[in-house]
Specification:
alpha/beta; seven-stranded parallel sheet
Length: 236
C-alpha cells in the first residue's frame, strides 16, 4: 500500500492503459479519479475498481481538450478527496494521414487531445501540487516520438511534442518537488491499436498488454519520495 493516503487522476481511464493504471494505483492504496469522455464506460470502470480494490474511485466525465471541463473535473476530485498527488496523462487519439494529406480537422483533433489536453490537465493540478510541495506527473508519450511512422504524421508530431513538454515541465516544477516523466512505449494491445490495424492493415504481433505500461507508471510514482524527473522512458 505504497500510495495509501495519496490521490491520483488518470485520464483516458475508461479502458486500456488508463483503466489498467487506475486499477494498479488503487491496488497500491491511492484514491483515484478516472477522467474520460465516455461517461458510461468510465462509471463502470470506477465502480469495478471501488468494489475490487477497496479504494475510492471517482468517475469524471470530460473532454481533456476543453479547458473548462478539465478544470471542473480536477476541482471535483480535489473537493471530494482533498489532495492531488499523481497525474497520469494517458488520454490520446490517432488519425491516419500523411503529412501532405492530413486534413486540418484531423490535425487539430489529434493535437488538441494529445498535446493541448495534456497541457490543460497539467496546468489544472499544478496549484495544488505546489501548495503540497510534492507531486508526480506521468505523461504517456510513444516510441514514435523518436521515429517517424508512415501515415501517422499528426500522432508522431503530437507525441514528440509531449516528450519536450515533459522535459520543460520537469525543469519548471523541480523547485516545487514535483517530478514530471514520460513513458514512450511501443505498440500496446488496446482498442486504439486495433483501430490502426483496421485502417492501415498494419499488425502488431508483439503489442504489450496495458498492464505492463501500468507497471511502468507505478515504477515512476513509487517510491513517492523519489526525485527522478525529466526522464523519457523507452524501456517498458
Amino acid at each position: 500500500m505504497e500510495l495509501k493516503g495519496k490521490v491520483a487522476l488518470v485520464t483516458g481511464a475508461a479502458k486500456g492503459v488508463g483503466e489498467a493504471t487506475a486499477e494498479l494505483l488503487a491496488k497500491e492504496g491511492a484514491d483515484v479519479g478516472l477522467l474520460d469522455i465516455n461517461n458510461d464506460a468510465v462509471e463502470n470502470t470506477a465502480s469495478r475498481i471501488s468494489r475490487h480494490q477497496g479504494a475510492k474511485a471517482l468517475a469524471l466525465q470530460g473532454d481533456v481538450s476543453i479547458k473548462s471541463q478539465v478544470e471542473r473535473a480536477v476541482n471535483t476530485l480535489q473537493q471530494q478527496f482533498g489532495r492531488m498527488d499523481v497525474l497520469v496523462n494517458n488520454a490520446g487519439i490517432w488519425k491516419c494521414g500523411t503529412l501532405s494529406e492530413v486534413s486540418e480537422e484531423d490535425w487539430n483533433l489529434v493535437l488538441d487531445v494529445n498535446l493541448k489536453g495534456l497541457l490543460f490537465c497539467t496546468q489544472a493540478v499544478i496549484p495544488q501540487m505546489k501548495q503540497q510541495q510534492c507531486g508526480k506527473i506521468i505523461n504517456i508519450a510513444s516510441a514514435v516520438a523518436f521515429g517517424p511512422a508512415p501515415e501517422w504524421s499528426a500522432y508522431c508530431i503530437s507525441k514528440a511534442a509531449v516528450a519536450m513538454l515533459t522535459q520543460v515541465a520537469a525543469k519548471e516544477l523541480e523547485p516545487f518537488s514535483i517530478q514530471v516523466n514520460a513513458l514512450c512505449p511501443g505498440a500496446i494491445d488496446t482498442d486504439l491499436t486495433k483501430q490502426i490495424t483496421q485502417e492501415t492493415g498494419d499488425e502488431f504481433p508483439h503489442a504489450m498488454p496495458p498492464e505492463k505500461v501500468a507497471e511502468a507508471v507505478l515504477r515512476l510514482v513509487c517510491p513517492f519520495e523519489g526525485t527522478i524527473t525529466g526522464e523519457l522512458v523507452t524501456e517498458i
